[in-house]
Amino acid sequence: MCVGLQFENKIGGHDVKRTQAEEVVLKFTKPLFGFVQNRCSTIQDAEDLAQEMCLKLYRALLVRDDIAELEKFAWTIAHNSLANYYRRRSRHGNAIPIHGFEDMLQTDEDFTEKIEKDESARRLHREIAYLSKTRRQIVIMHYFDKKRQQEIATLLGLPLGTVKWHLSESKTDLKKGLETMRTNSELKFNPVTFTSICTNGSAGSRGGNHEYLRSALAQNILFITRNEVKTINEISDAMSVSPVYIESEVEFLKENGFMLKRDKGYIANAIIDIPTTESNRLASEVYEKAADMFACEIYDALKASIESNADGIYGGYDLEITQTAPGEGQGKLTATLADINFTLWALVPYIIARSGKPHSVVSFEEAATIRPDGGMNICYCSVENPDAKPMKYHDSFSKMRGPSWNGDDKFLLWFIDTEWGGSRVGNYHPDLLNRDLASLKTFSKGQLSEDDMIRMTERGYLTRRYVEKGAVDTLKIVWLTHDADKRLKDVANALREKYQAEFDKLKATAISNTPEHMKKARAYGQQHMFFSDAYFIIYVLNKLVESGRLKLPTQEQRKSLGAVIIM
User: Fold this and answer.
1) What one-character-per-residue DSSP string does 156-212 give?
2) Is residue 167 domain-shared with residue 82, that is, in the same domain?
3) What is the 3-state secondary structure (H, E, C) of 493-529?
């Protein structure tokens, strides 16, 4: 059985397709003649009919690239051509072989003529979609809705002369488009997929950048325009998607700050990395060396500092506030530090992310994009590359969310979700974090409502147990006072100063293939390498687990792991 037909039009355009069509027709010439030889009145009729079949097959192959079963398609053309031959003969009173009636009754219309007619209409509709929005509106109103030019001018608020000019130019564009053989890009059959979509900065009311870039359409538009300006039609050709859909999606992305308008085209306003085996190897090497230097020392230093002075550091399910009935005053606070392992699961990544101060070359205000929903951030994306050997700890990183924080100078909620803990961050909404923060402030005063208590328990922040005198609510995450926070950061800063020169050397070796318009955003991110750097935190945590310093949390602790409150 003959397999489906797919033309490769990557080079040569018409010439390649014509050559391939000729090869296919040549293959069927002899079988088609054999088919009609005993079904026609004369050998001359058989030759003419076989030639007609070959011509129809050739024309169909030039205009179609979606033929699933080539052999079935060719023989359908043969049967319908033979049926038409019998009809012509019958109108002139000529005899038809008895076995020909079966062929004649198969259809009542010329299959290939219908194909050519439908294909022409399809191509015309496609080319109309490639017109600009204004020209597309005018063409549809005039030729499909049968509106007069003056009526169109009134409806669109344009001068009559402008409408006439657009109609004239549209005819030229459509003719040129119909004469052009548009080729299919690999992206039509194999679209890219972003493996990560990160928000460096504050999310807006709609959430993080992943909320905007969920669709394959949005992701592939950004991918196509990551390095250079592309017009709507160029993006459409690359994706083999109608410009009508591309146009609206590009407008949405531009309005929300993910694309920039440049002259007649657009370019992505996001850093899009395409990993290779070599780039992943070099990145792994950089993080491995930094974690080898820093991980165990920061853990040992923080642990020693906490054991020598635990004032203002509370964790391990032991910060208790006894709720009192309304009107009886504020709850009583009693707190101790019990589980130092649980505490360090939160404090190690927190102190790494929040200690020290990167050498500032580019400010956040210079690098970030202000989005209409109130967010201010840089968008980082990574593209799936199945041929690239992944970085070490890639699986750990894929399960990580954060670090994230929310708050003010007096009260801060910081957290990170990893494979060892729960999934508190997820596709979070800023309003949810603000509510968490407000509830924790209220909890610190012993005034949390019953409904909020239930919600905060489900979120992994709190737990409740009952004793003889009433309910005892326990804060399950780590709590720091400002003084304790400063004390632990000073410990980390001393270590950072010790290794700063080594860190700077490692940063300089990082590969960065970044288009010109995104260099400030890239530079800002690289300033924070080994600080609030998710990859660095993952490497450090894995090193500490492998060395046995961090013990795996209990099942009960997992949902609450990695959150810190600073008050």
Assistant:
1) HT--HHHHHHHHHHHHHHHHHHHTS-PPPPHHHHS---EEEEEEEEE-BTTBSGGGT
2) no
3) HHHHHHHHHHHHHHHHCCCCCCCHHHHHHHHHHHHCC
CATH number at residue 143: 1.10.10.10
- What are phi and psi for residue 431, nearest 5 degrees? -60, -35
- Domain extent for 94: 14-118
- pLDDT at residue 541 greater than cutoff 90: yes
In a domain, 487, yes or no: yes
Radius of gyration of the chain (CA): 34
Number of H helices, E strands in the chain: 22, 15
54 plus 150 within the same structural domain: no
- Kindly state the average pLDDT of the residues 235-251: 86
What band does 498 get if pLDDT is binned at 50, 70 and 90? very high
Residue 197 phi/psi, 5° resolution? -135, 110
**Pairing assessment for the beta strands 271-273 and 376-383 based on DSSP bridges:** parallel
Q: The pTM is what?
A: 0.64
Q: Does 421 lie in the same domain as 292?
A: yes
Partner residues linked to 370 by β-bridges: 376
Q: 3-state DSSP: the chain helix, strand, coil percent, rounded to 5?
A: 55, 15, 35
What is the secondary structure of 448-504 as a DSSP string? --HHHHHHHHHTTSEEEEEETTEEEEEE-SEEE-HHHHHHHHHHHHHHHHHHHHHHH
The residue count for the chain = 567
Task: List Cβ<8 Å contacts ≥24 apart for 424-430.
Answer: 424/459, 424/460, 424/559, 424/563, 425/401, 426/401, 427/207, 427/208, 427/210, 427/211, 428/203, 428/207, 428/208, 428/404, 429/205, 429/207, 430/202, 430/203, 430/204, 430/205, 430/207, 430/406
Q: Residues 453-475: what's their mean pLDDT? A: 77
**Alpha-carbon distances of 533 from 135, 400, 526, 538, rounded to whole Å:** 49, 12, 9, 9
Does residue 402 sit in the same domain as residue 537? yes
Same domain, 42 and 144: no
The DSSP symbol for 323 reads -
Residue 268 lies in a domain: no
Q: What digits encode the pLDDT tens for the residues 156-208?
A: 898 888 888 888 888 877 777 666 655 555 565 568 889 888 888 888 888 88
Asked, for residue 416, whether it belongs to a domain, the answer is: yes
Burial (CB count within 10 angstroms: exposed 0-12, middle 13-18, buried 19+), residue 547:
exposed
Cis peptide before 403 (omega within 30 of 0): yes
* Amino acid, res. 397: F
**Domain identity same for 19 and 139:** no
Q: Which two tokens stand for residue 362?
A: 């580019």
Helix (H) or strand (E) holding 118: helix 111-129
Distance CA 535, CA 506 (A): 14
What are the tokens at 387? Answer: 């041929």
Residue 372 lies in a domain: no
Least confident of 1-10, 218-227, 332-341: 1-10
Q: What's residue 184's pLDDT?
A: 52
Q: How far is 325 from 362, CA to CA, in rounded Å? A: 53
Q: Could you tell me if 136 and 23 lie in one domain? A: no
DSSP symbol at 425: S
